[in-house]
Automatic annotation (TrEMBL):
Terminase large subunit-like ATPase domain: residues covered: 106-276
Molecular-function GO term, any one: endonuclease activity
Native species: Vallitalea longa
Domain Terminase large subunit-like endonuclease: 289-561
Protein's recorded name: Terminase
Origin superkingdom: Bacteria
Amino acid sequence: MIDVNLTLNTINNEHSYLLEYYNKAIKGLDSINCAPVDIKSLIENGEIVIIGQELMTCLENLINDLDNPDYYYDNSIAELRIEFIETFCKHTKSPFYGKPFLLELWEKALIEVIYSFRWSETGLRRFKKVILLIGRKNGKSAICGALSMAEFMCGNGGSDLICSSNDDNQASIIYDEINTMREMFDPKEKRTHKNQKGIFNLITRSSIKKLSDRTRNKEGRNIDFAILDESHEMKDNIIAKSIEQSQSTKDEPLFINITTEGFINDGYLDEELRYGREVLNGEREDPDILVWLYTQDSEEEIFQDELTWYKANPNLGVCKKRAYLVSQIRSAQAKKSDRVFVLAKDFNVKQTSATRWLEESDINNDATFDYEEFRGYFGFSSTDLSETTDLTSSKVLIMKPNSNKKYIIQKYFIPESKLNSKEAPYREWVEAGYVTKCEGNDIDYSKITQWHEELRKKYKIRIFKAGCDKWNAKYWRKEMDEKLGIDVENVPMDKYTLSNPMKSVEADFKDGLIIYNNNPVDRWCFLNTCLKVDKEGLIYPIKSSDVTQRIDGSVTLIILYVLLKRYRTEYMNIT
C-alpha cells in the first residue's frame, strides 16, 4: 500500500515532486479569477504552475495509480539521478555555461514518475516508453543530455545508450551535449573516454552512441536507454521500431521520445500521439507508456492570454525568454507563414502540411491602373512554364520612382481543349481577355513571346530582368533571346529560393502594395495556393489536396519577387 499525503506532498513519508507539481497545477487552475499581474507573480515565485488539460489528465491518472495495488512507489532511483544531475552536471550553453544544472520542478517530477512506479509482482520499473511533447527552446536537449549522463554514470553496468534522430546532425545535438557534460565532469578521463565510435564508461563498461536514418546500421543493437529527438521529422517508424526491437531482451528498457510538433502529416509522431492520447484518455490500456504533453487547450487562447503560454512552455522565463515569444506572436499575427511555424514549434498546435497562404482580406485591393501609366518603363518578367496541357501564367512587375507599390501586368494562356473544364470559368476569362486561347491540346509558347512583344510595341514597356522555372524552358528561352533580346534566367523552384520572396509577397499584400487590377484569374490562383513550412521555418508554395486548383499565378508573382530581391538596387536606378 502506497502512503500518499497530498497535503504534505509526500509519498511513503518522502517528499514527492510529482505531488508538489500536481498541487501547484491545481492552484494554477484555482487562480483563474485572479488578476493577471497576481497570477504572473505567483508563477514567478513558484507558488503555482500553469499546465494544459492533457498534462493535467496525465497527472490525475498518475495520482489515481498511486491507489492501484498493481504498483508500488520507490523514488530512490529517481532521487539518485536527480542528485547526480544537480551535483555533477553543468550547463553547456550560453548564458548558463558552466553553471550547476539545477532542475526545474517539472523536470524533477517527470524524472520521479519515470523511475518510481514499479510493478508490485516483479519489482521492475513500470514505464518503458515516454512521449514528451514540449515547445522549442525549453531546454529539451539539455534535460535529455543531463538525464542520459545520469543514466550513463548511475545505471546498470554494461548498458548501451543511444542518442537518435531522423537526421545525423540532430542526433549529434544531444550526443554532443552529453559529451560536453562528460568533459566537465571527468576532464582527465579517469572514469570515461570518447573515441570515434562513442562515449564509454571505463568503470561500468556502458556506452553511448548515435543512431540516425543515415547511419544505416540500425540492426544488431542491444539498447537499454534511448533518446529519440525531434521525431516530428520522421515519416515512418523504422528507427523507432529498430530501437524497440533491440530493447526486447531487456527487463527495464527506457525509450524517451522528446519532440515538438511538426508539419508531416500521418508520420511517425502523429501515430505515436494518436496512440498516446488514446491511452491518456482511457480509450486504450497500456501501462508501459507515459504520455507527458505540454500542449495548449486551444489556438485562440494563445493570442488572447499570455499566461496560457506556460502550457506548452514550462521553462518560459527560465531559458525561454518572454520577450522572444512576444516577438514571435507579433510575427505570427502579421504573417501566415510565421503563424504556422510558431503555432507548431512554440505551442505544439498541429499544423496541416497544406495551409492556405492568403486570405480574401489579404488580396482585396480596389486600386487599379492603366497600362499607359507605364509607357516607356522597365519591368521584371516571370513565366511559369507548366506542362503543355495546363494553364500557363506570365507576369510583368513595374515600380514607380520613390514608391514601394508593385504594379502587376498579367496574361494567362490555356489550350483550347481545356476551355470546357469544370475547374474554372476558362471560356469566360478568354472572352474577357484575361486568358489567351491556344489551338489544340498544348500551350503555344510563342504566344507568350508575342505578348511580351506587344507590351514593348504598344506601351514601350521593356524587360529589365526575366525569370522562369526550369520546366520546358529551353526552347522558349532561346526564342525570347533571339526575338526580343531578353535573357530569361532559370529560377529554382525550391524553398531556399522561394521562402523569403514568398514572405515578402504576403507582407506586401497585407500592406496594399500589390496592385494587380483585381484580375480574377490571379485571385483564383492566390486563394488556391497553400504554403508548406519546414523545420527551419522555410516556406514554399504548394497546391491544396484538390489537384484541379491552379497556382500558376502565385508562382509567377513569387518569381517576380525573387528577381526583385536580386536586382532591386539596379532596377531602381533606371526607373
